TrEMBL record:
Protein name according to UniProt: Enoyl-CoA hydratase/isomerase family protein
InterPro entries: ClpP/crotonase-like_dom_sf, ECH/Chromodomain_protein, Enoyl-CoA_hydra/iso
Pfam families with a match to the protein in the record: ECH_1
Compartments where found: Peroxisome
Organism per entry: Rhodococcus olei
Keyword Isomerase attributed: yes
Keyword list, A-Z: Isomerase, Peroxisome
Domain of life of the organism encoding this protein: Bacteria
Length: 261
């Protein structure tokens, strides 16, 4: 299994479990996480979901080797749900969602925080939205959710720079609720999750529904814009250079690409 599931005190903890790959999302993990979220949404014994990672990473984002195969292998077989299915599940998740960022988070390992109702982060963790470094576009409605959550300039830096955001920066931006020592992270995150989980599930869902209702149309529109840009850029000169450089173990060079690429 690529995901571990633990139930305690009406909190379901989902632990991403590909530690050797820094919990990068391959098709299997996208499918497993999507199905775990949907199962938790439908389970009347689950009040809150807590997501974290196993090992030294929260998630290294999309598995770049699979991304390269998707663009270069005509026989590549996508999963049942894939990336878009996971974002559907996050956008539709009706119960409180808590994230405990235990280590590095890239791509969806960072943009998932746009869907979190509470996020906690280890002092040793760091986040990156590597989209411009990969020659692609934002994802997961981050072009809408991040400016709304942390302000336009903070979001512009995260989405445009492909630079690391450290825990104190994330807290100052409002991207996470609390920063914790590594050995305290899960206890703190779980304590908050269990506080919520002791409340009536119907009330928790009502609060979340009323908070997210005004966002739903904007999230859908942002995803449509992002997916259009992503389709246009994926497999283009900048994306090919980025993935080739990754496969060759070197830094990409975008300066020699055709104008506008």
């Amino acid at each position: 299994m690529s995901i571990l599931v633990d139930d305690r005190a009406r909190v379901r903890t989902l632990t991403l479990d590909r530690p050797d790959a820094l919990n990068a999302f391959n098709e299997e993990l996208y499918d497993a996480t999507t199905e775990a979220l949907r199962a938790a949404a439908d389970d009347p014994s689950v009040a809150v979901v807590l997501i974290t990672g196993n090992g030294r990473a929260f998630s290294a984002g999309t598995d770049l080797r699979e991304m390269h195969a998707r663009t270069s292998d005509p026989n590549f077989q996508p999963g049942k749900h894939g990336f878009l299915g996971l974002i559907d599940a996050l956008a539709e998740f009706p119960k409180p969602l808590v994230c405990a960022v235990n280590g590095l988070g890239l791509g969806i390992g960072a943009t998932i925080l746009g869907f979190a109702d509470l996020a906690f982060m280890s002092t040793e963790a760091k986040l990156k939205c590597p989209f411009t470094g990969l020659g692609v576009a934002p994802e997961a409605a981050s072009s809408y959710l991040l400016p709304a959550l942390i302000g336009r300039q903070n979001a512009a830096w995260m989405l445009m720079s492909s630079e690391w955001i450290h825990a104190d920066q994330a807290k100052d931006m409002g991207l996470v609720f609390q920063v914790c020592a590594p050995d305290e992270l899960m206890d703190v995150a779980r304590r908050h999750a269990e506080t919520l989980a002791a409340k009536p599930i119907s009330s928790l869902m009502a609060v979340k529904a009323t908070m997210t209702a005004p966002l739903r149309a904007e999230i859908a529109a942002a995803r449509e814009r992002e997916n259009g840009c992503f389709r246009e850029l994926m497999g283009g000169p900048a994306n090919v250079e980025a993935l080739t450089a990754f496969a060759e173990g070197r830094e990409p060079d975008f300066t020699s690409l055709p104008a506008g690429a």
